[in-house]
What does this fold into?
Amino acid sequence: MSELSALDAELRDLFRFAAERSMLPRFRALADDEIEMKGEDDPVTVVDREVESFLTDALTKLAPGVAVVGEEAVHADKTVLDQLSEQCWIIDPLDGTANFTEGKEPFGIIVALADAGKAIAGWLYDPITDRLCHAKAGEGAFINGEQICAQTTGSDPQIAAIARGFLNEEQNAEVDAKIAPHYSLVDIPRCAAEQYPRLALGQNDISTFERTLAWDHAAGILWLNEAGGKAARPDGSEYRVDEHEKTGLVGACSPAIWDEFVGRM
It folds into this structure.
């Protein structure tokens, strides 16, 4: 049986504690006054804020001097984004908040460690199943300490999860014309902590993302690439955590499937 590294075990324990204290007791039990809207289809809950505060404090104690960039901290103060070019932790305290507010799975916790604009380690935690996907740059991808390699769905046509909700009318028309005839299209789970594992575990072959915020994607991109898949900008360029205004990202279970898909776009 594989063992987690000391850092991976420490973070798993932090995630478990946050889930047991804040997430799971309020799943399907949120009061109306525990939910606010930051924007259209962009809720925030008391759970987001509690978990981010807890992880910010814990990570600061774990690595003094390393900046922390949390999703809710950025919402309150956009200048926090400037720290993404430094060595920093990046936190999505409740990925899949919309699902959570509706009493639905999936949802999770995502944390990345970045340096000079690139993710060097990442963790995606599912509190329902206690699944921890984790990776460090150059060391492979793991689930609960077991190394994994990305696999295809084996489906014909291949399965593509498209985030249509963030596309405009013209972009959706392009999907219908160029992508739909060649792939079996499915909805995204509205949770990056679930979508990236689906690309490596034989559930989806391809996924596209329009919004590419660091707290949603930094850890998953690193993990998928370390598993032997490919996640990159549509032009093939590497994802950087500090390019927060850039849009567009494609993830795939293999570089060949990525190339074939992008060639159709």
About this structure: The chain has a mean pLDDT of 96. The helical segments are 6-26, 46-62, 71-76, 97-101, 169-179, 192-200, 214-226, 255-264. The radius of gyration is 18 Å. DSSP finds eight helices and 14 strands in the chain.
